[in-house]
Amino acid sequence: QEFVTVLVRDPRIQKEDSWHSYVDYEIFIHTNSICFTRKTSCVRRRFREFVWLRQRLQSNAVLIQLPELPSKTPFFNMNNPHHVDHRRQGLQEFLEKILQDALLLSDSRLHLFVQTQLSPEDMEACVSGQTKYSVADAIHSFASLNRRFPIEDEERKKGKNDADSDSESSSSGLGPSDDSISCGCKASPASEES
Q1: For bias kind Basic and acidic residues, which ranges apply (predicted)?
Q2: How much is the pTM?
């Protein structure tokens, strides 16, 4: 039976410049669904990227009523753990609902959103064919920049013997090759069961 587990966790305050900060959240995906290029992935996203995703999904699936995001309140305080956790819960509920909809799962933007660190502009360019790399290339390239999950290592060893077949250099133009974009995800105990 197919499953998709999504966790939105580990909120962190990020400094944009000396005047502006924002909170981003780790999105951890573990699945056995054939809809996903990678079976485990981990990215960090901020609230306004969720807003962009919802708008794009809604414009492509006009007949579907998408779940709401947590409300954007002018009184949101990133230093208030209750505010941050309330938003985190709302973002998780949003992703849980949209990842259960077959029509929404066919949208490449959703896959790029939860499985790469591409910006909204780069996701749009990729989906519309304006990049040298495909959606699958972007997802594989991002995964190769990050630490592998134990489950994927086992699957890779069982499935293929050529160890370097899916590791690419970061010269594909998909972003920095250092660990600054790695979110240090670890597979949760529940996800280690196959």
Answers
A1: 150-163
A2: 0.75
